[in-house]
Amino acid sequence: MPILKQTEYAVSRRTFLAQSGLALTGIALAGSAHAVQAAPATITLGSGLHSYHLLENWGMLPPSVSIGIGTGIAVDSHDNVYITGFGGSGIIVLNREGYLVRNITGAFTEAAHAVCVSRDNGDEFLCVTQPDRNLVTKTTLDGRAVMQIGKSSGAIYEQLNQPTAAAVSPNGDVFICEGYGGQRLLRYDRHGRYIHHIGTLGDRNGCFNICHGITINSRSKDTELYISDRENSRIEVFTADLIYKRSIDQGINLPAACVIKHDLLFVVDQRNGINIFDSNDQFVMHMENSVKPMDHNITNAFSMPHDAAIDSKGDLYTIDWVEGGRVRKFMHYRATS
Question: What pTM did the predictor assign?
């Protein structure tokens, strides 16, 4: 499998951002001058127990608020939706009905690539990844920073090199992947102290070629890490001690992220849309290909999907790597035929 050199990827990413125009303050999701038009026909994904119906025009934003280029999405225990982007209005927070609750600005008005929600002593926190700042920040749900990882005065290997995603285990340890830089998987304790790391550029087990996303396997008795190894077309699974366990590659092409909910694994594939796997990581079904990259006006379900989240009702939220983000909500239901 060919290896993509990091210098080549950095150039292509910079070129993409330049062409897309990072200063997208005038671009918003549906409801702005650049609104995504509702699809002429209802979009339904999946079948049977795994059926999802698009709620058209969900998540309309006022013209003064924009996502920019869509990057990350997460939900909290109250089903509020947190959205990140490059060049938008910071972290945008919507309620379950799709109405704007607030947007978190400050440092997050700059490029924020991923966001996850974690619990600590009964409280919920955000973990925000910013590759261009070499920084992962733990914040309260309203954006007050409580811990930062990356700006360290310690050894060079403790510092971050263009991290793309982070996840927090039940004991508070923070796991970070450097998908746009060092191609490492790092572990820090709940206080942000470095523990150890693995990884380098390559296609062998335990190596990465754009380790783009990370999630914790909540189905497992012991903590497992699912890493979206994008250019190697696989999900790699590790223990909390960063020991390689297995790979998942059936039907996977360019995995950007994955999410685990209700015993199911959802793999967000920038070329293949979304694939569902069961509790044993066995393929269940495929839900629509991604089409016509970098076009926020298409009527298909996905255009370069970049992340996904699932709320307490089982509803699916996705965000595309396009101008305006194309955040979409798919209501989960059980099809009878």
Answer: 0.86
